[in-house]
Amino acid sequence: MPTTNSAAKRLRQSVKKRLHNRIAKKIVKTSSRKALELAAAKEFETAETQFRAAVAKIDKAGARGVLHKNTAARRKSRLAREFKAAVEKAKASS
Fold first, then answer.
1. H/E run at residue 82
2. Label partner for 27 (CA 20 to 30 A): which of 63, 72, 78, 89?
3. What is the pTM of this model?
4. C-alpha–C-alpha distance, residues 8 and 78, integer Å
5. Eight-class DSSP state of 3
6. For the chain, percent helix, then strand, then coil, each to nearest 5?
7. What is the pLDDT of residues 17-50, one digit of tens each?
């Protein structure tokens, strides 16, 4: 347990920030997964919309410091590759 007032305040702040960051990361992961699932389900228009939303959420998390900027860039790149592959696979199986 913290012994000083400033240490106690830092503990309270870190708990709040941790919760906020966990929520933001979960939102990024969920929106990315939904975009890939929609692409696999051949709902291309909604998948494209969800993909753009996921990229925007990754950008926002990177800008706010929830994710490191290089991590955000890497996730966007991976998501774009996986999304393109999922769309091509779904179109090929039609």
1. helix 69-92
2. 89
3. 0.88
4. 40
5. -
6. 85, 0, 15
7. 999 999 999 999 999 999 999 999 999 999 999 9
